[in-house]
Amino acid sequence: MLPVVLPRPSATDMLRGLADAHAGEYISVDELLTGLGNHAFGVLLLVLALPNAIPGPMIPGFSVPFALGIIVLGVQILQGHRRPLLPAWLRRRAIPRDRFRRFVTYVEPALRRFERWFRPRHARFLTRRGDRPRALGIIIILFALVLALPIPLGNGPQAFAICILALGIFEGDEKVETAGIVIGGLATLFNVGIVIAGVQMVDYALKYLAR
């Protein structure tokens, strides 16, 4: 008799379960991380990348603290951790469960529609030889390093790629993760092109002034 393989619960189902639990009046960050499991990496990556993906005024150094946080998460994924490791003071932070329940009720319809397109799927690129955590961790760290660089117009595309990658991790959709990696690779090439063009412009200007 073949064993029964239960489908992996969606991130929305896990959020709903956490909201409906009667474990107390408050829910802590540690409870959220434990309940979401691997989904929590996607949530935190999205939170850190999104501010840089949204167009806004260029502020020198704005992307650095977000990139450092993404690097920390990338290292933890690389090391094979099943959920993010956060400082104790942050894990102890809590919010009223009623407020969290209202939030889940508000976002659940959109998440359910979102999950029609994003669902747990495998991609050969990420499952070959079981190296998925190592590959994802290294790629996230590299993308975050590029995000930290003060390159004009370069942060947006790089952060957008990390957002796509985060959504794939959030839903366990390796095909979406692969799309994020491809977009991130193109964004990295775009940043390299900006740097090369900038160096050439400076070199041309110096030669022109030296005449």
In the sheet with the most strands, the strands line up as 1-2
Overall domain count: 1
N-to-C terminal Cα separation, in Å? 85 Å
The biggest sheet, with number of strands, parallel, antiparallel or mixed sense and barrel status, is: 2 strands, antiparallel
Give start-end ranges of low-pLDDT stretches. Answer: 1-6
Compute the CA-based radius of gyration. 20 Å
3D structure, described in words:
Helix content is 69%, strand content 3%. It has 211 residues and is mainly α. A two-stranded antiparallel ribbon has the order 1-2. The chain is elongated.
Q: What order do the helices and strands come in, and which of them pair?
A:
Blueprint: H1 11-20, E1 26-28, H2 29-36, H3 39-53, H4 63-78, H5 88-91, E2 94-96, H6 97-114, H7 124-127, H8 132-148, H9 155-171, H10 174-209
Antiparallel strand pairs: 1-2
Describe the structure concisely for a colleague.
The chain is mainly α and 211 residues long. The chain has helices at 11-20, 29-36, 39-53, 63-78, 88-91, 97-114, 124-127, 132-148, 155-171, 174-209; strands spanning 26-28, 94-96. The chain has one domain (11-53, 60-209).
